[in-house]
Design goal:
With 158 residues, this protein is α+β, with helices and mostly antiparallel strands. It is built from seven helices and eight strands, in the order αααααββββαββαββ.
Length: 158
């Protein structure tokens, strides 16, 4: 059954390439075989099937960034001044790494207003704070930023 349809599709392609040949070919093929008349009168579906291929669809990541979960490192950041380079990672929840990095870049900018010795600031809806230098030396954790469901950290690279 497949072979006659494929031959019909190929024949329709060949006949359709010559001007006026498609209109001449359809009646002759329908008159030749009564069983071929439904297929011969509608060569487009057979032709479409013979030449079909799926159009490229954009990947999900093109529209929605992949979310990183706990234990995922998103990149490194250099705080202002002589601070050590830190790795930004996800502690809790899920977040796009680009978002986590952008939050810390904004938090560490010198023009971001911070309060108190912990440097508390709200950045893009995230509550951020930093440890003291002494606490950073003990724990390795420089800063954390969190929302109600997600926590990210900037830890000193040993």
């Amino acid at each position: 059954m497949f072979l006659p349809l494929a031959l019909l599709a190929l024949n329709a392609c060949r006949d359709g390439s010559e001007p006026g040949a498609a209109s001449k070919a359809a009646p002759s093929s329908s008159a030749a075989s009564p069983s071929a008349s439904p297929t011969a009168t509608t060569p487009t579906p057979a032709l479409t099937h013979a030449k079909s291929h799926r159009p490229a669809t954009p990947s999900r990541s093109a529209h929605t960034p992949a979310l990183a979960g706990p234990g995922k490192n998103c990149g490194t950041i250099q705080p202002p001044g002589n601070g050590p380079t830190a790795v930004v990672g996800v502690l809790k929840g899920r977040v796009a790494c680009a978002t986590a990095m952008a939050v810390f870049r904004t938090y560490y900018r010198t023009d971001t207003p911070k309060q108190g010795s912990a440097g508390v600031a709200t950045v893009r809806g995230w509550l951020c704070a930093s440890n003291s230098a002494a606490q950073t030396n003990i724990t390795g954790r420089m800063s954390t930023c969190r929302t109600s469901t997600t926590t990210v950290s900037a830890d000193v690279i040993p």
